[in-house]
TrEMBL record:
Belongs to the CobS family. Joins adenosylcobinamide-GDP and alpha-ribazole to generate adenosylcobalamin (Ado-cobalamin). Also synthesizes adenosylcobalamin 5'-phosphate from adenosylcobinamide-GDP and alpha-ribazole 5'-phosphate. This is Adenosylcobinamide-GDP ribazoletransferase. It holds the Pfam family CobS. It catalyses: alpha-ribazole + adenosylcob(III)inamide-GDP = adenosylcob(III)alamin + GMP + H(+); alpha-ribazole 5'-phosphate + adenosylcob(III)inamide-GDP = adenosylcob(III)alamin 5'-phosphate + GMP + H(+). Its EC number is 2.7.8.26. It comes from Pseudoalteromonas prydzensis. Its cofactor is Mg(2+). Keywords: Cell membrane, Cobalamin biosynthesis, Magnesium, Membrane, Transferase, Transmembrane, Transmembrane helix. It is found in: Cell membrane. Pathway: Cofactor biosynthesis; adenosylcobalamin biosynthesis; adenosylcobalamin from cob(II)yrinate a,c-diamide: step 7/7. The gene is cobS. One of its GO terms (molecular function) is adenosylcobinamide-GDP ribazoletransferase activity. InterPro entries: CobS (IPR003805).
Length: 266
């Protein structure tokens, strides 16, 4: 439920801080009691948080490569990214593969996904996606489209795609009362528009400064739209909806697909 009074009591700046607090380990002041309704509205800024993370990681990579080879610089940048986010999305990716691979019924899958232990499916999936991400960024370090541009695009657009799934799917849980913290379960048209505007502004800006070709941007959008349809069908087939882990998995898959698409266009 989303009370109409939320916007009157919490500013957009506070919602942005909440989005940063939810998606990262960066300490930010929150002088209000967080509710699911607040997080529903804060989700409009998830792509912006991804953009800020991407810019920070790009700057760190630029510093690393002044002293170190590209392979070490990419690895250190990825490590810092994991520290900044607390491996939040990677955890969801691993949990989804453990649940989908180890469970037969929806209830079994949800129970496995809630288990804090890492299984074989999750460990293998996590190893593969991190390796593919590393290799893709390493290849991009040798291209005209720099790692810095790729990481900013990947961090921002992947969160826009993952968050947009909330707009099109229902939240599912074996025990909704067991959640240890609020979860975004509703995305308004305004919030969806904010997500898309953030992603579009980034792409247009990169095209305007000559970093990104408009043809490349068009291909990226087309690929992500197709991927979004596939992920919705996948989650609905497995769970008849989404969980927080599904959104984390969607972010990771979208991010790595962005890098692979850029690599394929080299």
């Amino acid at each position: 439920m989303q009370p109409s009074s939320v916007q009157n009591t919490v500013t957009q700046g506070q919602l942005l801080l909440l989005a940063i607090s939810f998606l990262t380990r960066v300490p930010v002041p929150l002088n209000f009691t967080v509710t699911g309704a607040h997080l529903n509205q804060a989700s409009r800024y998830f792509a912006l948080v991804g953009l800020l993370l991407g810019v920070l990681l790009a700057l760190l990579y630029s510093i690393f490569q002044l002293l170190l080879p590209p392979s070490i610089s990419v690895l250190l940048m990825m490590a810092v990214g994991l520290l900044l986010t607390g491996a939040f999305h990677e955890d969801g990716w691993a949990d989804v593969w453990d649940g989908f691979g180890g469970g037969w019924q929806v209830e079994q899958k949800l129970a496995i996904m809630k288990d804090s232990r890492l299984g074989t499916y999750g460990a293998a999936a996590l190893f593969i996606i991190l390796l593919v991400k590393f290799q893709s960024l390493l290849l991009l370090s040798e291209s005209l489209l720099s790692v810095q541009s790729a990481i900013v695009i990947g961090q921002c657009l992947s969160r826009a795609v993952a968050t947009s799934l909330i707009f099109s799917m229902d939240y599912v849980s074996a025990d909704a009362s067991a959640k240890v913290k609020p979860l975004a379960m509703h995305l308004s048209v305004t919030s969806l528009a904010t997500l898309l505007l953030t992603a579009a502004t980034l792409l247009v800006s990169l095209i305007a400064v000559g970093v990104l070709l408009w043809q490349t941007a068009f291909i990226l959008i087309a690929v992500l739209l197709i991927l979004r349809v596939i992920m919705i069908r996948w989650f609905k087939q497995q769970l008849a909806g989404y969980t927080g882990d599904c959104l984390g998995a969607a972010q990771q898959l979208s991010e790595v697909i962005i890098y692979l698409t850029l690599v394929s266009l080299l």
